[in-house]
Amino acid sequence: MQCSRHNLNVVSAGNGLIMGWVRFFEGKRIFDCIGSPNTAHPVPVHVEEIKDIITVAHYILVVEKESVFQRLANDQFCNANRCIIITGRGYPDIPTRRFLRLLVETLHLPVYCLVDCDPYGFDILTTYRFGSMQLAYDTKHLGVPEIQWLGAFPSDPERFFVPKQCLLPLTAADKKKIEAMLLRCYLQKEVPQWRLELKLMLKKGVKFEIEALSVHTLSFLTESYIPSKIHSKVII
Q1: In the Cβ-directed half-sphere of 221, how many Cα atoms lie within 13 Å?
Q2: Residue partners of 164: CB distance under 8 A and separation at least 6
Q3: Which of 37, 47, 56, 154 could form a Cys-Cys staple with 200, CB 3.0–4.6 A?
Q4: What is the pLDDT of residue 62?
Q5: What is the DSSP letter of 211?
Q6: Spatial contact of 64 and 130, defined as CB atoms under 8 Å apart
Q7: Could you tell me the maximum CA-CA distance found in the chain, to the nearest angstrom?
Q8: Other Cβ atoms within 10 Å of 123 Cβ, number
Q9: What is the C-alpha to C-alpha distance for residues 96 and 15, in angstroms, rounded to an integer?
C-alpha cells in the first residue's frame, strides 16, 4: 500500500519499559515516572496520543536487556543521575522505537545506548539508530540518528580489567553475522568508529555481556562505568 503501519493505525502490543525523570499523558492516562523514578512503567503503545511531556532529566539511556534495566533500578541509578532509562528487552519493537524517537525530538536530550559486546548487541544498537531491514520504509518514523554508543566496546576489557574467563569465543555464526554487518554501507559512511570496533571484535574473536563489567563489584556498572563514560565523553 506504499505507506507505513503508522499511517494505517496498525499498533502492536508494546514490550518496552521506561523509568526516570519524565511525566506525560497518553490520551487521558498520565505516566508519572517522576513521582517514583526507579519504578518501571510499560512504554505507551499509542505514541501519537502522547502530549505534555515534562522532564528534568539530563540524558536518555537505552539499555538492551531487562536484567541491566532492573540492576539500574535496584541501584537507584535514576535518583543519582537524573536520567530517563528505556529498554526494549532485546530487539526493540515498534512502540519502543517510536516512543524513543518522540522523546528525543521533543526533549532534545543526549541519548546513549548500552548493549552486550556481541554481534546481536551491535545489531540492536544499529536498529535503534538506523532502523531494521524489514521496516526500512518506516525508518523516518522509527530511527534515532542522534543515538550514541556508550558500550560495551570490544576495547573495554583491557580498560576495565574484565577477567579472561568472562570473555567468550565468537561462534562460527557470530563471525558470519559480523562479516555481513561489516558490509552495511551506512556503517562506513555515517559511523566509521562503530565499524572499527566491530572489526576489532572480529579480530579479537571474543564477546562478553554487559554484566561482565560488574564481575569485581555489583555496583561497578552503575557507580563507575556508565557515569565515567558519560562524563568523560568516552562514547562514539
Answers
A1: 26
A2: none
A3: 154
A4: 98
A5: G
A6: no
A7: 54
A8: 16
A9: 7
- Give the confidence band of 72 by pLDDT, cuts at 50, 70, 90: very high
State the average pLDDT for the chain.
89
* Residue-range domains of the chain with CATH: 17-154+216-231 (3.40.1360.10)
Strands 168-169 vs 206-207: parallel, antiparallel or unpaired = antiparallel
3-state helix, strand, coil in the chain (%, to 5): 45, 20, 35
Sheet holding 41-42, edge to edge: 41-42, 17-20, 83-87, 59-63, 111-114, 148-151
Whole-number pLDDT of residue 113:
97
**Positive or negative torsion for Cα 83, 153, 97, 184:** positive
Which residues, in sequence order, are CB contacts of 206 under 8 Å at separation 6+?
154, 157, 167, 168, 169, 170
Nearest to 103 by CA among 71, 57, 72, 140: 57
